[in-house]
Design goal:
It is a single chain. The chain is built from twelve helices and six strands. With about 280 residues, the chain is an alpha/beta fold. It folds into two domains: about 70 residues, 434 Repressor (Amino-terminal Domain) (Orthogonal Bundle), CATH 1.10.260; about 180 residues, Endonuclease, Chain A, CATH 3.30.870. Strand 5 and strand 6 form a beta hairpin.
Length: about 280
């Protein structure tokens, strides 16, 4: 039999297909047997496995039912739907919207939840110019971001903790006018009663305990999820052991970072120095 090689890292759709095939084969199930149990044709299953056809939410839920995998494939479908975003981010934003507390750490750019529309647009415009995303994908990213930012105005508001690497505030995005307005907005949101804002200064050196962007939502049942991100890959995690390791690193970072008053003072100084 000629079995097509899969490239699971090429896209969320390809990852969904690869994991579908892997789980089916682990169960010793043929495509014909799976077709009989899900109500989809063997050809449809083959097309999803090889990435030729995107899954639907109904299909993903049927797969979870047949494989007894809870909501695993339904969650993976969220990544396929959020096609312009990194793998894992579609799952993360569903949990972020439920968060009672949210801890975030960013490097290089202001966290999305705290971006002004102009700052966010400058980033997506640059990505389009580089050919990294299409105009349609840029529009999708901005729509997703606008929906996420409603979290800040939710009643009751979640408790937010944000640590920004110093590179976030020193890297000028969109020119002086946009960056000054962005830094002014950071100072403004730092005054919110449910917001704690800190800067991790360059002087921390090797004491900085996180080297990738990390987001840690605390959910209504008090469980904690985690999302971390590399240049081309995102990882969503619910395993308590994996999440706890990131949470511990975050707590170390909170202790070593500048207090909020000193952080706001540094942001204000950088704002005045922008040429």
């Amino acid at each position: 039999m000629n079995i097509k090689e899969l490239s699971p890292d090429s896209s969320p759709q390809a990852s969904f297909g690869a994991q579908l095939r892997s789980h089916r084969e682990e169960l010793g199930m043929t495509q014909d047997q799976m077709a009989e149990r899900t109500g989809y044709s063997p050809g449809h299953i083959s097309s999803v496995e090889t990435g030729r056809k995107p899954p639907t939410l109904r299909f993903a839920r049927q797969v979870d039912r047949v494989f007894d995998t809870g909501t695993k494939f339904a969650n993976l479908f969220l990544d396929v739907r959020a096609s312009s975003l990194l793998q894992g981010f579609g799952q993360y934003i569903v949990e972020e919207a439920k968060a009672r507390e949210l801890r975030m750490f960013e490097i290089g750019i202001i966290p999305g939840l705290l971006q002004t529309p102009e700052y966010a647009a400058a980033l997506t415009t640059a990505a389009v110019s580089r050919g990294s995303i299409t105009e349609a994908q840029a529009d999708e990213r901005l729509r997703v971001l606008a929906n996420r930012q409603r979290l800040l105005a939710r009643v009751p508001a979640p408790q937010l903790y944000a640590i920004l690497d110093e590179s976030c505030i020193r890297r000028t995005v969109g020119g002086r006018r946009i960056m000054v307005a962005q830094l002014d907005y950071l100072v403004e949101v730092a005054s919110l009663p449910h917001m704690t804002l800190q800067v991790a200064p360059y002087s921390m050196g090797e004491a900085r305990s996180l080297n990738l962007p990390v987001y840690l939502p605390v959910l209504p049942d008090r469980s904690v999820a985690a999302y971390s991100e590399g240049a081309q890959q995102g990882w969503f995690e619910r395993d308590p052991a994996e999440v706890q390791a990131l949470l511990t690193s975050y707590h170390h970072l909170q202790v070593e970072a500048l207090p909020q008053a000193a952080s706001v003072a540094l942001i204000s100084k950088v704002r005045e120095d922008i040429q």
